[in-house]
Amino acid sequence: MFDQIIEQKILEAQRKGEFDNLPGMGAPQQFEDDSDIPPESRMAYRILKNAGVIPEELQLRKELVELKQLIADEPVQGDRRRQLLARLNQAEARYQAALERRLRRQV
């Protein structure tokens, strides 16, 4: 019953043009990978992120992804690559420590 009401409201809004000219219209959707966040915590993380508060481990995870991309883009050898690899190792250690702290708090 609710499905029919919702569908009716959506169709009505479409006819009125209420979905026209929305920000991002026609652009592909950007979905974030939250597979490493426990399913029971995903909603809370999303709410915090939307409020501009990002838990430490998510910020560190973002840093890891960015560093891995920088390393992939760097030439095979060189000082810059070695520096990036050192930063990646440090970021991975901080990430693991943050995850361990979170797990200890949940117990």
What does this structure look like?
- The chain is mainly alpha-helical and 107 residues long.
- The chain has a domain at 55-107.
- The chain is built from 4 helices and no strands.
- The chain has helices at 2-16, 42-50, 56-73, 79-106.
- The longest helix has 28 residues, at 79-106.
- The radius of gyration is 21 Å and the shape is flat.
- The mean pLDDT is 83.
Summarize it.
The chain has 107 residues and is mainly α.
Helix content: 55-70%
Order of helices and strands: HHHH
Shape by Cα distribution: flat
Supply the helix-strand structural class. mainly alpha
Count, helices: 4
Describe how the helices and strands are arranged.
Elements: H1 2-16, H2 42-50, H3 56-73, H4 79-106
Helix pairs in contact: 3-4
Question: Keywords, please?
Answer:
single chain; 107 residues; mainly alpha; 4 helices; 65% helix; 0% strand
